[in-house]
Structure formats: C-alpha cells, structure tokens
C-alpha cells in the first residue's frame, strides 16, 4: 500500500474523532508541506496567519490550475477583493455595523427564549442527544428567524445543505468527489431558487428579516442581483446552522471531559465569554480553509506555484506550541488568545458574532445542568465532513433531575 | 546584582500613557521598591486620542477618558506637580514647589505639549485653542457645542484634520489653513495628500492651502473675530484651533547635562538616555513621545515620533531594562505604527512614510477610498499606509520588517494596473508646512547641542 | 470600569460593535470610536467584546484612583 499523504490521513473519516496528533505531525513536517498530488498543507500558526493576510492568496477556486468544471460564481466566502468586499458589505447591511450595528445584540432575548424552550423540553429526560435535542435546533431556529425562512422547511433545506457541505469539503480528488461536486452544484441551484422565491414573496411586504431587507433595499446601488441574492442567502443559511451546532456540541463534549473546568465555569459564569473563545481555539467548528496563490509565491522558503491548492489547517495553527503555551490544554483563562477559530483577515467569519451569542446562551443555560451528567459514548460518532468537524450525535446521561 | 535592581527607588516623571504602562510593567517585572509617578496635570492618566474624535463629536465628555490599569502599580501618584529640574549627580528630581525626590533610577516620560500660537497676545484671545490635554478638549468641545459661526483650524496635520472632520460632522462651518500644498502632505507625501484634500472639500471644509495666518484679530473685549491670511484675505471665525504640531517637554532637563533638544531626549536601543557628550547613562531611562531612539530598520537613525503604540511598547522595554542586569536587557524594536480616523475614513500607517523616494498603490484605488499605498526608499519597502484596508497591514508590516524589495512583488487580487508604476513620494521639507509628520528621522547624533557646548570656567 | 482600545492593533473586524453597540461604534466602514467609561449595565457586554476581539486589542480595568495616596 502506498504511503498515504498527511492530507489523506487528516481527511480520512477514521481519524475524525482526534485529528490533533496528525496536526502535530504536520507541524513537525515543516511550515509548508507538499502533498503527493502537488498541493500544499500549512499547519503552523504564524504561516497560516500570514497567508490569510496575504493579498496574493485567492479564496476563489476558479483560480486553481484545474478549476472545477462549469462551476458557477461562488459566494463572497470564496471571492477576492474588490468583488468580495462589495458583496460582503451588501450582505452586512441588514446584519451588522456600520448599517445595522444593534441587530445581533437585539436578538439576545429571543435567543435566550429559544434556548429555554429547548431546555424545558428536556426536563424529564434521563438521556439526551446534545446535538439533535439542543445544539442543532437552536441555531436552526435562530437563522430561520433572522433570514426569514419557515422553520418547518428544515427537512427540505437540510438535504440541500448536506449535499453542499459534502461537495465543499476538503478531500483528495477522486471519482466520488466529481459526483459530489455535481450533487452540490445541483443543491446550490435548488436551494438558491427556494430562497429567492421566499425573498420575492416579501418584495413590497417586508417582514423584518434579512431576506426582506435584501429585496426591499431602497438604494439601487446597494441591491444584490438575483444570482448574488441566491448565492448569499444559501451561504448564510448553511453557515448559520452547520457551524454553531459544532461549537455548542464541541463545548459540551470538552466540558464533560474536563469536569474541573466545568465546575469552574459553574462557579465563575463571568468566564464564559473567554471559555467560548478558548473552545474556538481548542475545538474549532471549521478546521480548514483553501487558498490559491495568484502568482508564484515563496512562503517560509518553499515556492508555491501559481494556481496550486494550499490548504490551511486552522485547527492545527490553534494548537501550535510556537504560538500558544501548552496548546493541548483547555484553559478558559488563557491570556492573549488570538485563535484562528473564525479565520483571520478579510474573510473572518461573517456570522462570528451570532455564533458567539448563541454559544454563550446555549452553554450558559446548559452548564448548570451538567454537574452530574456524563458522556454515554466517548468519542462520540462524528459527522463525515473534515472541514466542518463536529459530533453527529452526543448522547449524555443526565443523572440528576432538572433543578427548577 | 539582579536582585538589587528589583528594589530601591524609582521615579517616573510623566503620568500619561507611557508613565502608567511603565509603572505597571515595573511591578510585573518584580520591582518591589518604592515607585513615585509625577505628573503636571491634576488628573490620573487618561487617553488622548479620543480628545480629537469622540470628545469633539460630543459623544463622550472630556473627563471620561481615564485609562484603565492592567494592574495596580502601587505607586505614589504626585499629580498636578511639575518637575522643574534634574540633578543627575545627586540623583534628585526637583519639583515646582521646591521639594526634591531622590531616585535610584529615573524614567523620563514627559511627552509633548501642543505648539502654541506664536503671538502670545493673540493666543490669549477668547476663542483661541490648542488641543492636547483633557482641559483643552473640554473647553473646545463646550465651544463647539454652543454652535460657533465658523471654526478656523490652523494646520492640516492629523490633529487639525480630525478637528475639521469633527466640526463638519457637527454641522459647523470650518476653514482649514495649511502652509503646504495639501493636508497630511508632511506625513504621507503627495499622492495621499490629494485624497486628504478631496476629503476635506467633499465634506464641506473651506480648505486654504499655500497660505499662512498672519494675525488673529479680536474685538474690544478680547474675543476672537477672525484671522488675516498671507494671501490678503480674511476669515471671520469665533473659534480658532492652532494645530501646529507638538513641542517636546524637555525644558526641565536643560541643566541636567543630558542629550535633550527640540527633537526629544536621545537614548540607546535599550531606552537609556545619553548625556550631552553622547555617553549612555545607566540610571536615566526614556519612553514615549519625548524620546529619540535608534532603529535598525531605518539606518540606525534616531527616530522621533508621537505614537500611542510606541509609548506602550517603549514603556514596557524601559521598565524591563530598569530592573534587569545588562545581558538580560531588551532592545526597543517596535515598528512605528499610527492611525487616524477622519471624514469617515480610517487611515493607518506602519513604518516611516517620510523615508521614501517613491510610492505605489499596491491594492485598491483612490477612487474607491480603499487603498494600500506602499512607500519605498532606494529599492526597499519602508512604509505602508492603508485607507479603510487595515486588515492588509500585517502583510506590509512583514515586508518592512524584512526589508523587502520595492515595489512589492505582484499578485494581489485587487492590485490595480497602476501598481506597476511607482511615482515620486513627494514628501516636502517640513519647514514649509504648518504641520509635521508624526514620525521623523533625526539623524545619528545623540545630541546636536554638542557643537554649541561651551566649557565653563 | 474603563476601557481602552489599542487602535494600533485594531483591524476593524467590528466584533465589539456587534456585541456592545452602545459602547463601540464604527465611524465610517472601519474606524472605531468608543466610550472609555463603561456603565455598569454594559459591563457584561463589554467583557464579551473584549474576549471576542480577534486581535485582543481591548483592555478593561479600573482607572487610577483620582487622589493617589
């Protein structure tokens, strides 16, 4: 059997529950590590950070030497400036500053309510699945309300979302991946159509959600085209519910593995914001991003040819001992925690503030009930994706009845 | 012995950002001796950048910008007390009321003050301001809130431009006069100064370049009524702010035999002050705007700058070196970094833009008001300035730190065609300007006064 | 409590504005303005903002007490 490349081993589902030893191996292998297929892997903090700020590195897959065939124009997540900036700015108008600075802050009460309702439903249960019963329904409900998507359509968009996430995953090229790309493209078209139709229903009848804001924008210079609206809305709906679920589930998993830290957070709830940041470092929902140099570029003594896929292992950078003291220790009081959990540079996660508010609400509400809980399966079963990594299920036993 | 350095008496003269951060860092470094901080203003350390922005906009009051402590430095704060002299032989700081403070090690962090309007009688007119202190800002903000007919800002540097921007945002009429060809030209050179001039005019500022104010006029009651300009015109204004740059607070060191002059107190890379003969002292340290320090990236010339980040970084190095034995000392190598927000634009600079012969637009465009300008000197990158593109700055900072070739290598997605064509940086001689750069290279000589020292009999 | 933001480090990610919009504001697309004095009812939000800052530029702490000792 041919020796597998690091990228193949990292993306191998068998290693999903603990990729961190492979990341350590990656960092040992060098700062920029060539894979057998010619692509590069970067796993050290300072190099990842530098590449995320390097204007010569493109996020656009159409700049690959062999770009995916017939791929449509990607959403702003995978576009470069100035087009990325234009679209992200338009998408930001109903979501955050400078145009809507208080939008997310104003949702805190609603997010707490949804959290409390979900917890209420678990009151008499001895066993719960943290993912299905809590970590998944919370962000889905929130992003549906924020965007203006009917919550009951979740089974519909879940299918599309799964296909899109699978096609966007980082993995070595093979015949399955071509099939997955095709299914992903089809799902993007259908999901985009579905969201544009929802938005169109609100033209002239705004209902306070983001889809309404997009189609009722009074300034013609600030309007998204139909295609841009489709791509943007698909991106926001997927990102809004495929990532925060991992952050919350990873949080519960980490705290149940570290009862001392769980106990500490129960006693010192003021630490929660920093604990969420530490989670984003220690068990980030997004493990990798791909970049492509627009010219031949030399990084840390290695020359990367124009158009070569360069995978940045953010989760590995977060565990780099050259940047973080005792990186494999979960420490909510860690000073100077400039993690890469949301990336860095111009593509820093658009929804980061919403994810933070949701994770703080979710963990803050759940932590008081976890005192006597324990994991029924450790490690838990993981979702397939390597890039968006998190448990598929997280069954736990709640020994003690809910306090009122 | 290293242990001894953690004890004894340390006096810090200057109770602003550098003084506070140095005091905290001394305790952080394990200093257990007595610590005294002397400040001539009656207030605990406060933050100055908001004074020309939030405070003038009326968002916050001038007395609310107190700086948070990283930790309580357990110091004796002597506030509202001016240091008037230094006896380096007897190791005493002389205070205004005659008392003197003995020290084992001294940190000079006296900063700068606003350069006043040169005619004292005119400067005393009611309505004439400078902007440096909390009291200055409180007085000016109060006057702006009262709705003056017109504000005259003399000097188109960063402070003058920020004042003009705040006035326009408040709906006030503003005239800015600048002796040079454009605002900010002394700090950023020709190309960006044209953008600055456009921002002034597009926002309704009456911008007059190439002129000076020859006189301020008052009415019979000593109230400002306007100004005469060198082109023969007259500006009617009831408020005037002289934004003519900063003066180093070194006068109290005049008899101390140190290398103190108009550009500041010269020190080595470890923040130790030089004496007037260029000999380094070992008990007098310097940090912040009052210092002049050598930088390896800029030909070891002594840098003189007025930057928030430098005050913080240099204070930490100075504090470390004050309590560390020789081989454990650290150099102050931080790259000059600066920001300004005006007319809705965020301008950030890294490096020394005035050490340049050419510039290129590396990313974005002037038309979009989103731009990265890279400065080169003799074929290497020496500075970068971003306008609303701060996330790009770390990349260019790295180019400066590694003395990368200029113009920078191509490949940026948003690199304009013009990036291939460096143009002259057009940094004029500051002598012909009403404003100066916030970072300047001041040569290699620790003390220019060496040439005028007279032997005493 | 007081805050100060190291605007030398700030890159305009605006996470603080999302999380504590009454204390932090954008001035234009990228410039940051803020109130140094934090009202008690904003303290929890400011703690979140300080924790969330991607470049860890926000310092929250007590002011030096006015009269010294």
Describe the structure.
The complex is a heterotrimer of chains A (404), B (457) and C (69). Chain A is α+β, with helices and mostly antiparallel strands and 404 residues long. Chain A has a single domain, classed as Cytochrome P450 (Cytochrome p450), CATH 1.10.630. In chain A, helix 7 (137-147) runs antiparallel to helix 11 (226-242), helix 8 (154-168) crosses helix 9 (175-201) and helix 9 crosses helix 11 (226-242). The radius of gyration of chain A is 21 Å and the shape is globular. A 5-stranded mixed sheet of chain A has the order 1-2-8-5-3. A 3-stranded antiparallel sheet of chain A has the order 4-10-9. A two-stranded antiparallel sheet of chain A has the order 6-7. Chain A contains 16 helices and 10 strands. Chain A has helices spanning 6-11, 20-29, 45-52, 83-92, 108-120, 130-135, 137-147, 154-168, 175-201, 210-215, 226-242, 244-257, 259-267, 272-282, 314-317, 352-366; strands at 33-34, 40-42, 57-58, 127-129, 288-293, 297-299, 302-304, 310-313, 374-375, 395-397. Chain B is an alpha/beta fold and 457 residues long. Chain B contains 10 helices and 30 strands. In chain B, the strands form 7 sheets. Chain B has a 6-stranded mixed sheet, covered by helices on one side. In chain B, strands 24-25-28-27-26-29 form a 6-stranded antiparallel sheet, with helices on both faces. Chain B has a 5-stranded parallel sheet with strand order 9-16-10-11-12, covered by helices on one side. In chain B, a hairpin with a 4-residue loop joins strand 4 (83-87) and strand 5 (92-95). The two termini of chain B are 39 Å apart. Mean pLDDT of chain B is 94; it is low at 450-457. Chain C is α+β, with helices and mostly antiparallel strands. Chain C has a single domain, classed as Alpha-Beta Plaits. Helix content of chain C is 22%, strand content 23%. Chain C has 2 helices and 4 strands; from the N terminus they run E-H-E-E-H-E. The model of chain C has no long low-confidence stretch (mean pLDDT 94). The B-C interface holds B 20, 43-45, 47, 49-50, 53-54, 57, 59-60, 64-70, 72, 75-79, 307-309, 312, 337-339, 341, 343-346, 388-391, 393-394 and C 1-4, 6-13, 25, 27-37, 59-69.
